[in-house]
Amino acid sequence: MKKILYSFLILSSATLFAQQKNPAVKFAVADNVIGTVELFNTRKNLLQVSKVYNTPSSLPQGLKKYSSVFTKGVTEYKFKNGENVFDRMALSEINIQYNIPADNPVFIEGYEFTDTSTLIYPQIKKKTEVKDYNGKKTLFIYTTE
What we know:
alpha+beta, single chain, 4-stranded mixed sheet, 3 helices
């Protein structure tokens, strides 16, 4: 019985650890596509800060669907002269690349994205893992090494 209990505790702690949200990640949005402040800082000359939203309640209508992710706010950027040089992909497309059903949720830094039509800048991916989450193969994306 002890072995079963210990196995369950180890599995539970590993699952909980895998789902921890990274409070250090600073999400950002440009052209309704999710990235990180770090990514956009690499191309400052092409961008301008449009607005910083500090709380989920201050988000504009177009970003409210991400209020569970942008719990600490988000920076919205605009491309100067419409010069978007970044690739963009739907989470469903990224799932397919990893042989995961397109509609399975994706975790980015511990934040769950259930709408896989959400577009991200894939350049934010520093590390990816496929894990079992609630009995489904699930993609976990990390923006830091």
